[in-house]
Amino acid sequence: MSANTSTSPPGHPIDRNGLLDRFLSYARIETTSDEASETTPSSACQWDLARLLESELRDLGLDAVHLDDYGYVYGRLPERLHAGSPRSGRIPTVGLVAHMDVSPQVSGRNVQPIVHQRYAGGRIALPGASDVVLTPEDDPPLGDCVGLDIVTSDGTTLLGADDKAGIAVIMTALETLQRHPEIEHGPIAVAFTVDEEIGRGVDRFDLERFGAEVAYTVDGSGVGEIEDETFCADTMIVTVGGRNVHPGYAKGKLVNSMKVAADLLSRLPKDRLSPETTDGRDGYVHPHALEGNEERTVVRLLIRDFTAQGLEALEAMIREQATAVERAHPGSSIATDIKPSYRNMKVVLDRRPEATAFAEEAIRAAGLSVIRKPVRGGTDGARLSFMGLPTPNLFAGGHNFHSRREWVAVQHMERSVEVVLHLLGMWATRGEQRGLLDVTH
Questions:
Q1: Active site residue 361
Q2: Is 196 a catalytic residue?
Q3: Whether CATH 3.40.50.720 fits 16-230+344-436
């Protein structure tokens, strides 16, 4: 069945217009996180969406709705089973998680979402920026969306589908359950997190308050995707010391730390081990930020690989190059420091195969093909898994994240809602079997 065809359970239609309205309202709220900040949340603007979501969860009738001192929003929907059901009290609490912040790499201020109704194919020119044009040639998934309603920004900002599409999906799934009391479900925990885009999404996450036994982030991309594997990720902070002297009298004395840092960066491989030259399961080293002057320059490098051993090998390579560069520039100094981000969640999820198996079944039940591939990035679920909460990642439908070319199809968000509803139903009917499920197909 086509990804464009709805298969929501008979009698339980999803409110597509309500889903779109939710997403548009969330997209217009600035929530850019700030890597330089030491507060949680890292930016005051994230409180605006957090307060709105707290209010909306209360309006939907959830229990234990709470906005904590760090901007996290929690809520719970008690189980609802037919009277006398032998499954009552035996179904695991299933969690749904999405993050409120958007990437600081592209402006998220004053987002003006545009709905391109019934996309006819071909070019989509964004009115705010003449250099931003979407085409199926450059963006093949767009070619599969003829006839759908495409949402973009005006081209001057990102859109925020990462991950406000996920928030809209979760809220619409909850609203659908509340509108249809005949739908059975087990206990559901909901959480909306801050600062995921800067690697701090669960730094202050309250697992006890959340209370789930298994969870799903709704933070993925293409229709039908289920992800249980992420990069292992570190940030390497390279601090280059130089020796500053008045440039008019610097001969034989000045050691320019910026030039030393440039030498180090120039030694990174040109044809491999960078984001622009890798895909699939290849790791990379990515210079992410640089700031400095003659005396001191700091370079931040994102290090990624799918195994801890591969990550360590990349870091060792950079240290070796740093040592060689330091020797080549007498009077300079280079120090490296590692800031761990997250590890590959597959190690944990392989111990709870039913979490991913149920997600795959839910995707099939919605009439979609299952797409399994590793995440060339991370999710809150990676760290939650290592904190003891198995958390695979489900698609929300967005594309071109962290970009002015970001877009999402409304119907693909709707398909994500369907998958979530099917998934919750599976846990309600079979979840009491816990780790003893038949996961063969």
A1: no
A2: yes
A3: no
